[in-house]
Design goal:
Structural class: alpha+beta
Strand order of the largest sheet: 2-3-1-4
Distance between the termini: 19 Å
Number of strands: 4
Length: about 110
């Protein structure tokens, strides 16, 4: 059993994944190439959402520190670095990502 006691599913564990763009103005001044990469990034996380891995994801519109946020549900922590490494925005060097374990409480 996981130590994630707040989850409704004790076989799953949760992580918060934060993505950081290359600059504060990124959402306003992306190049065409960056925009195409970000469309791939969105498609990647939409697929993960459809698989039940990404519970929620999207941009956080903090004007001083814009970033992306995802809450993911996985079976083991070894899945997290792989999910991050396979993100098209990470592969292209457009985003950096960090993750932290989370004791998520989900709706019933």
């Amino acid at each position: 059993m996981s130590n994630n006691i707040s989850s409704n599913n004790p076989e799953k564990i949760h992580f918060m994944v934060k993505s950081t763009p290359p600059r504060e103005t990124f959402h306003q001044d992306m190049t065409e190439e960056e925009r195409n990469i970000m469309l791939q990034h969105i498609a990647y996380w939409t697929d993960k959402q459809n698989q039940g891995i990404a519970l929620v994801f999207g941009p956080v519109l903090n004007p001083k520190a814009p970033h992306g946020l995802a809450i993911i549900e996985v079976e083991n922590k070894a899945q997290v670095p792989k999910l991050i490494a396979e993100d098209p925005a990470v592969i292209a060097g457009v985003m950096t990502m960090e993750s932290y374990p989370m004791k998520a409480t989900l709706p019933k």
